Amino acid sequence: MIRVLLADDEAMVRAGVRAILGSDEAIEVVAEAADGLEAVELVHRHRPDVAVLDIRMPRLDGLAAGAEIRRTAPGTAVVMLTTFSEDAYIAKALGDGASGFLLKSGDPRELIAGLKAVAEGAAYLSPKVAHRVIAELSGDGAGGGRMTRAAAAKAQVDVLSPREREVLALVGAGLSNAEIAGRLFLVEGTVKAYVSAVLNRLGVKNRVQAAIVAYEAGLVGS
């Protein structure tokens, strides 16, 4: 069972998201919050697997709440669910360790799939958000910035062992630990250790950031 905390300052939105999540028997909403500060408090009380946060909330916005949750309750993954897809929000959320970024305008099935992926240790971006991230990575057509980022990413990847590079490539492809274990014929605990080592050696906070490095280094196709 995936235990979820849902935070949004609009009661009707919370009710709608709760109804969507309630349609899947593998997901349980264990707490709801109307602002970011309450969300942080309830995460500490209930220790959910995933915290689903709106960005614009009173007292403490979702970005700040997500950063605080990742700092003080690292066992809870953070997913941003919002109507806003501005690059600044995406960059801030992912930079603070969010594992997912979903849009309220997306398909309800995308919400369920995203939460399951994040709960399994993978990262998940709404297709529209992923498109914006890849577009940013691809540069504006001048090429110089893209080549500079690629060179930097390749230098980061060079410190990894061949097996670690394999794991990084599969993380970049969006596979969960269980899926990577099946692909590489390893036990899941070993994969988890490899992923942790890769994140540490790359100096990144989460799988999304690692996936970006994998893309820039050419380990994953665009």
From TrEMBL:
* GO molecular function per UniProt: DNA binding
* SMART domains tied to this protein: HTH_LUXR (SM00421), REC (SM00448)
Please give a single GO biological process term from the UniProt record. Answer: regulation of DNA-templated transcription
For this UniProt record, give its keywords in alphabetical order, as a comma-separated list: DNA-binding, Phosphoprotein, Transcription, Transcription regulation
Concerning InterPro entries, the annotation shows:
CheY-like_superfamily, NreC/VraR/RcsB-like_REC, Sig_transdc_resp-reg_C-effctor, Sig_transdc_resp-reg_receiver, Tscrpt_reg_LuxR_C, WalR-like
Coiled coil (residue ranges): none
Positions of the HTH luxR-type domain: 153-218
Q: Which residues form the Response regulatory domain?
A: 3-119
Q: What are the transmembrane regions?
A: none
Q: Which Gene3D superfamilies match?
A: 3.40.50.2300
Kindly give the Pfam families that the UniProt entry links to this protein: GerE, Response_reg
The UniProt record lists the keyword Transport: no
Residues found modified as 4-aspartylphosphate: D54
Q: What's the name of the protein?
A: LuxR family two component transcriptional regulator
